[in-house]
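Data availability excerpt. The first of two example chains:
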Amino acid sequence: MTEISVRFPAEWEPQSAILIAWPHAGTDWADRLGDVEDTYIALVQAITRFQPVMICVADDDVETYADIRLRSNRVDMARVRFVTVAYDDTWLRDSGPVSLREGDGFRLLDFRFTAWGGKFEAGRDDLLVETLAAQGVFGDTPRQRIDFALEGGGIETDGHGTLLTTWRCLHERHPDAGREELTAQLSAWLHQDRVLWLDHGALEGDDTDAHIDTLARFAPGDAIVFQACDDQADSHYADLKAMADEIAALRTRNGKPYRLFPLPWAQPVLDIGEDGQPRRLAASYANFLIVNGAVLMPAYGDAADNAAAAVLAQAFPGREIVQVPCRPLIWQNGSLHCITMQLPEGLV
């Protein structure tokens, strides 16, 4: 009997759609809904230039409103599909499906979503993949429920069996598990034969406990794009420098150093916290989204935006670099990649 090959594809491989969830007054975006809607409109405008987008909506009223907003901004609605499903919030990178290629088809991994270690309510988000699958959104693709807390933003693959992740995040979710055990579990579920761990790197204003997609990302051709910090006076400098040294010490499966693309550092973005005190927001350029033919990058209205776009153009030659205004997103401690999940070509 021939064994069916299973593979975790890289984000830059061909996609059928991007999955997002529309923000509404029942989510944590309520206090600044207008600003974040503008970001979602810009995001959908950018995605639909290159491929379809599937938008989760909470009910008919949310769909009608989102449809009007998008049409009024001249979005190509032929590339927009709405699906009705209940959700607590809109961070679909972490509550959405992790897609594996299995032979000529797919398998959806449905990990337990705990809202980053129980920080927020997540009951409906944890049911998102199951609900969408039951509606037939993914056709007859099998769904594998895994009773293990893991978020899509916490893992990064090169598509050839190497996984990149952070010890801080996985250890926080599973404090009783050692690195060897976690390596074995991730390798088995995600069909990876190498797991590379980073021990350094964290951003103030990030409540994911150092998701890898805020810090370092694979790029084609044995490359890693990562968030650097060149300001020695900044509180992040020492930890991100230690992370950069770790990344420089990593080796490809052929024993060679990775090609490295450090991203520039945005000036501090501050907000007023619930205690009335200023709080730092996590403005990471590493939280970019790859789509067919382009890289959508978070822009923060900072002088470093264009420099970050230039770095991404080097790391992803042949792809258009599109800046999406994401300053409203970091108010809720995430950015562009965090609110999206790619669906591989042929899945929908």
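And the second chain:
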Amino acid sequence: MVDQNLENKPKRIPVLAISRKVIQIIFFFLINYVALETIFNADFSLLEDLLKVLPFLHSAKSSWTVGAGLLEYSFYTISEGHFPFFFIAVISLLGLFGGRIFCGWACPTGFIQDLLYSLSGENKRFSLEVDRSLKKVKFFGLIAMIVLITPLGIYRISDVTAYIGYADFLGDLTDNMIAPISLSEFLFVTFPGVIQSIIENVNLQALFSEGKAWSTILFFLYIIILVLNVFWPRAYCKYLCPYGAAISFSARYSLVKLQRKPTRCPGRKECGVCEKVCPMQIRILDEDFSGFTGKGECTLCLECMEKCPHDAIKWRFGA
């Protein structure tokens, strides 16, 4: 009877989904204002100062992402021999007061992942155990980068000779330490550069030239990640994004969250739509009725709220 009633229920216009797409597009072009300059043949460089620092990952080398994100500045501060108290505080406060809303509504790489997923809309799922294990990978990646960069900062203030030697050992990581784990770096720097080189030289030297084994491996790894996003939504966000890992510590205690109305929600057996549409594969029906953040994984995309046939999911602000 419940299923029949739901089938007869008129479909609603996806206002939230449309609004989110519009906001994502606006942020994408604001951040990548070079695209605006190309389209309108105008100078939008004044946006550089306005968008110099944003929470999510930027690509340090790309003219399309002038400035850097909070995590990049945090790593840079560490490499200079200082603890990034300010940037960690900002990331923590953003997570506490807004959760991962930037990830869901403003991040350019998140927007591209959503576009890729729209090609199929299948929302494939890993098993619960595999999903939990994979979500730990981004934390290991974040820790690995901190472990690599910390000696650089220590040597910077204590031993110049050791600093130079360690900087040579790190190579490109010294100046662009987040590059290997940044989808933004791949999308806005690496991939366009490789394509341009292939077109100009009419060969694959940019991919397979001597001494670029790791670059080649990373290139094809990210191609695989992008393909996965067609079927597994937000795969990079869920399993690899270092900013997602950093902000999730405070986002799990976010004052902005979603909650389920117990009098409206029939549960997983009778419905379970919210879990089926969640791109972050959060076990929403295992979360507390009073409010959930998916242990800091929820990006507040509101897919569950909009597609819940019982109107059981609502906003909540407060502890």
